[in-house]
Specification:
There is one protein chain. This protein has a single domain, classed as Hypothetical protein, similar to alpha- acetolactate decarboxylase, domain 2 (60s Ribosomal Protein L30, Chain: A, 2-Layer Sandwich). The chain contains 1 helix and 9 strands; from the N terminus they run E-E-H-E-E-E-E-E-E-E. The protein is mainly beta. 6% of the residues lie in helices and 66% in strands.
């Protein structure tokens, strides 16, 4: 992954074979006590997304190892007290133009990936939200 930063904006270009989440966590390790809001596009050939099912109280995974376009990536990466976490949603298009998406679990770049990260200089961690049992942003 190549990056350039100006002020609170980071532009990233991911290379063939880069795993998107791994690269984001590597970058976040260099930005202590900050949160990054992420937007991105690209092309991938090994993708896993999941969607939460309230009925089963679990995530249902979908994996694709075909060539797909990353239509939209949004979410955040945070480094709070050295603990790095991501919360990313993505949508992908298959060659037949059908679309699938959800929580991004894995995405390997097949051509290129282009990300814009807006840095927020706050250490925002995560806490367990009792009513939903989900890890949510700790804004206290």
């Amino acid at each position: 992954m190549q990056t350039v930063q100006k002020g609170q904006q980071i532009i990233c270009r991911l290379e063939v074979g880069d795993e998107l989440i791994t690269e984001l966590k590597y970058l976040a390790a260099t930005l202590p006590d900050q949160l990054g809001a992420i937007s991105g596009i690209g092309a991938c050939n090994d993708v896993t997304v999941s969607v939460y099912s309230p009925d089963s109280d679990s995530y249902v995974e979908t994996r694709s190892q075909e060539q797909v376009e990353l239509l939209s990536l949004s979410g955040n990466v945070e480094n709070a007290d050295g603990k790095i976490s991501t919360h990313l949603h993505a949508s992908f298009a298959r060659l037949d133009t059908s679309v699938f998406g959800g929580h991004l679990e894995r995405a390997v770049i097949s051509r290129t990936g282009e990300l814009v990260i807006s840095i927020v200089p706050l250490a925002v961690g995560r806490i367990l939200h009792q009513p939903t049992q989900l890890q949510v942003l700790d804004l206290s």
